[in-house]
Amino acid sequence: MHSNQMKNCMKQILITSFLIITNFFIFSQNIELSLQEKIKIKASIFIKNINVITMDSNYVHYHFDVLIKSGKIISIQKSDNKTIPPKNAIVINGENKFLIPGLIDCHSHFYDNDDRWLFVMNGITHTRVMSGTYEMLELKKEILYNKKIGPRLFVSSPILGQNELSDFEFVESIEDCLEIIQDCKSEGFDCLKIAGIDSLSYYKAIAKKCQQLKFKLVGHAPEASDTDLLIECKQFSSEHLMFFHIEKNDEMKKLSESNIWLCPTLTAYTEVPHAKKEWSSIPEYKYVHTNLLKQWSKYPQEYIANSNDLYTLKKLWQHGAKIVAGTDCRVEWVVPGFSIHSELSNMVKYGLSEFAALQTATSNAAAMLEIDSNNGKVKSGFDANLIILDKNPLEKIENTKTINSVIINGLLLENKDLEQIGLYVANKRNKL
Ligand SMILES: [Zn+2]
């Protein structure tokens, strides 16, 4: 190569790199703003001729027109070629596509605020954060008041426990415990999360205080507890299949008939065959912060589910237990957002039907979060938290991954927006 050619070539490389870097910078600065602009426009959305899975029944309603305005589903009507979309509405051709409610991850942990994008790009419109912080309470408000885009958050207290799992430094006495509970309730956390409580007397005292304050008790009951004690203590939700403490069939029936919500977090206990291999080759890991991946690769998975667990979940479901989908994302190898699709797939592998699996992340989850009067189903008057899929998830649950567009709190994010969001997170997390 001549020196002039070489110079030109170098110049070209420099200009291109400059453009890439500036574009990235501008894009990072503006992603929130540019998407926020879309909210301000507040255009109506008219989805034409789509197949609707309302979640009222295991049935697909073929060829319907859905009108969305100001964040609400206004109407769902049989599609008619003569229907004229409202003026200024964004019209989406829903032909051969499927409309389902936005998904809900009932057990999540955040690495940082950018995790919200991973939920959004995977169609998660609500999540229950299970190790709350004051920062999360702040983010909850910002999302609620449309200052930030993200899934609506339900935030548990920081974890209260008697051992190293606890987020509180040292819980010296029952009195300390009760004071912490009172503070958490006053600060606005949505529920009290316990883990690592060893003593049954502590557990009973905590439960009593929660009942007095009308504060939901969630998390891991002490290892020595049994179903009767959980029911007596009005445990609101019990997390992780292996903490359900059920060995006998009659216990299973009792737990299924109780009011306790069960969140088995199957994905966290599914063997990750590639965990020990080169993780950089797994597509969704590009959205995980490099430091976190390094941490993950140091630890083997804590527990792998066995055939007995599979049997347990199927039996619980057959007994009519109140099961919700939660992924425990952010624990080793469980990537926020993406993991909800693995969880649904696991629900089916463990014996639930496709419809029942979908219920765990939509209508059941909305009922647990007590938002089922306007979320968790596709219905007129409900909030516009929806996903447009290319394929039918009731035929194959993995089709929840075929996301075409997400509508979150009335904001339409099309494929290109979702791709931009992904690019933004991947770039940010691999460059810091
Ligand atoms: Zn957890």
Kindly describe this structure:
This protein is of the alpha/beta class. Strands 1, 2, 3, 4, 5, 14, 15 and 16 form an 8-stranded mixed sheet that branches. The protein contains 13 helices and 16 strands. The radius of gyration is 23 Å and the shape is globular. α2 (115-121) packs antiparallel against α13 (415-431). The chain has helices at 3-41, 115-121, 134-144, 174-187, 200-213, 227-232, 249-257, 290-298, 307-318, 339-349, 354-360, 363-368, 415-431; strands at residues 45-52, 61-69, 72-78, 90-93, 98-101, 103-108, 124-129, 152-155, 191-194, 216-219, 237-239, 261-263, 322-323, 386-389, 403-408, 411-414. The chain has 2 domains: 1-41; 102-377, TIM Barrel (Alpha-Beta Barrel), CATH 3.20.20. Residues 13-26 have low confidence and may be disordered. β6, α2 and β7 (124-129) form a beta-alpha-beta unit.
